[in-house]
Design brief:
This protein is mostly helical. Helices cover 80% and strands 0% of the residues. It has a single domain, classed as MFS general substrate transporter like domains (Growth Hormone, Chain: A, Up-down Bundle). The protein is globular, with a radius of gyration of 21 Å.
Length: 449
């Protein structure tokens, strides 16, 4: 084999390993979040037993939102850390934090045992999850993209987003399996703890993978080459653009894969049926996420975002109406898959868009802080707001309007994006430190002039 072929093979192997390591932590993060949403009706009875069913579920969704409220603080603390000490050590810290806190939720006494202290501790632990998650997603997509070739950055970043859906899918499979094997009573009594406790071995696998990898070549170059770096504050308008783009990412993700599961239960289907339907939607969504990243590499970020948001605006209401009027599980599943399709495709495009809004030296701070503000505002409130709208209006199709509103906002934001987001690559002024046996050269500023 010729030397160039060996080098190309080594680079491809490095990209695969780094993408897997970045995605596995995101899988753990979203597994932890998914488990909470998937067993929300069970948690409501254990932590808010004296409330009416509707109020108890609203209270459980309010605790769900608590993790999102704290995420901007996590982004503020951990994002700059990724810019100062590196992407890899930050990813290790966030992964450990997520796994440990989720395990503690699995060990938490219920209200029947310690009274009001139970929901208080649940809120505290959920906020701990949010703190760790505040630095996880942004750093993970940056890590994967900074290893990728220029013409595949969208695809590589979307693979980390695939880890998000994989985490939800793993959670769904585990919840269904436990419910079928244990039965509703045992699931209510103690079975709900098992999915949270499984976060620890999943985190251990992610820690092993991440601890064996090096730093990204783009970050190494920026650290080695002296330059004047404009303050992050000068790019605040880019953070505003990111928040607008992330609206549909956050709303679509949690509405399609968490709220809809609870909606199906409220339509008098069983927990098993609801979770199986969401599992199928997730399996299809994983492929659509990758498709979104690849399409963004081919036609550009802005056109891909505009196509996805247009489909969401047009299709959401009829699909939600079909889902809520379904009496057959197979028909229900078809509508759930179709409702999640365009949001899944969109979340494959969004990650690389976030990254390319900021230069290398400010990516950790800019992406983590702005994205987590968006997730706190839109993702953290979507379950509560949608459930409140349904109960207030008596219309179980109200979730469609939440999804349409977010898509309209993101579509307008996409129109304001630069026509071409991909950074222009200058002639290298320095040679990067070898990474994985490769010597890579890039613009040390890692962004637009």
């Amino acid at each position: 084999m010729s030397a160039p072929s060996e080098a190309e093979h080594a680079r491809a192997s490095t990209v695969r390993r780094t993408t897997l390591a970045a995605a596995i932590g995101n899988t753990v993060e979203n597994y932890d979040y998914a488990v909470y949403g998937l067993v929300a009706t069970v948690l409501a009875k254990n932590f808010f037993p004296n409330s009416t069913p509707g109020v108890a579920l609203l209270s459980t969704f309010a605790v769900f939102a608590a993790a999102f409220v704290i995420r901007p603080l996590g982004g503020l603390l951990l994002g700059p850390l990724a810019d100062r000490i590196g992407r890899k050590p930050t990813l290790v810290v966030t992964l450990i934090g997520m796994a440990v806190v989720s395990t503690l939720i699995g060990l938490l006494p219920t209200a029947a045992t310690i009274g009001i202290a139970a929901p208080i501790l649940l809120v505290v632990l959920r906020m701990g999850q949010g703190l760790a998650a505040g630095g996880e997603y942004g750093t993970a997509i940056i890590y994967a993209a900074e290893f990728a070739p220029e013409n595949r950055k969208g695809e590589m970043a979307s693979r980390v987003q695939m880890g998000s859906l994989a985490g939800l899918l793993i959670g769904a499979v585990i919840v269904v399996s436990l419910t079928l094997s244990l039965g509703p009573e045992a699931m209510q009594a103690w079975g709900w703890r098992v999915p949270f406790l499984l976060a620890l071995p999943l985190g251990a696998i992610g820690f092993y993978l991440r601890s064996r990898l090096g730093e990204t070549p783009e970050f190494v170059e920026v650290q080695e080459v002296a330059q004047d770096r404009p303050p992050v504050g000068r790019r605040l308008w880019r953070g505003v653009l990111l928040i607008g783009v992330a609206a549909t990412h956050a709303v679509g993700f949690y509405l399609a894969f968490t709220y809809v599961q609870n909606l199906i239960i409220q339509l008098k289907f069983s927990l098993v049926t609801a979770t199986v339907v969401i599992g199928v939607a997730l399996a299809v969504g994983i492929g659509l996420v990758l498709a979104g990243g690849r399409v963004s590499d081919r036609i550009g970020r802005r056109p891909a975002l505009l196509i996805a948001t247009a489909v969401i605006v047009v299709a959401s209401y009829p699909l939600m109406a079909g889902l809520t009027s379904s009496t057959n599980p197979w028909v229900l599943g078809i509508f759930a898959v179709l409702l999640a399709a365009a949001p899944s495709f969109y979340t494959g495009i969004a990650p690389i868009t976030y990254i390319e809004l900021f230069p290398v030296h400010a990516r950790g701070t800019g992406v983590s802080l702005a994205f987590n503000i968006a997730v706190a505002v839109f993702g953290g409130s979507v379950l509560y707001v949608t459930q409140w709208l349904v109960q207030t209006t008596g219309d179980n199709r109200a979730g469609a309007f939440v999804l349409i509103g977010s898509a309209a906002l993101s579509g307008l934001t996409a129109l304001a994006l630069p026509t071409v987001l991909t950074p222009r690559v200058r002639r290298p002024t320095a040679t990067a430190t070898p990474v994985g046996g490769l010597r890579l050269s890039r613009d040390p500023r890692g962004g637009r002039p």
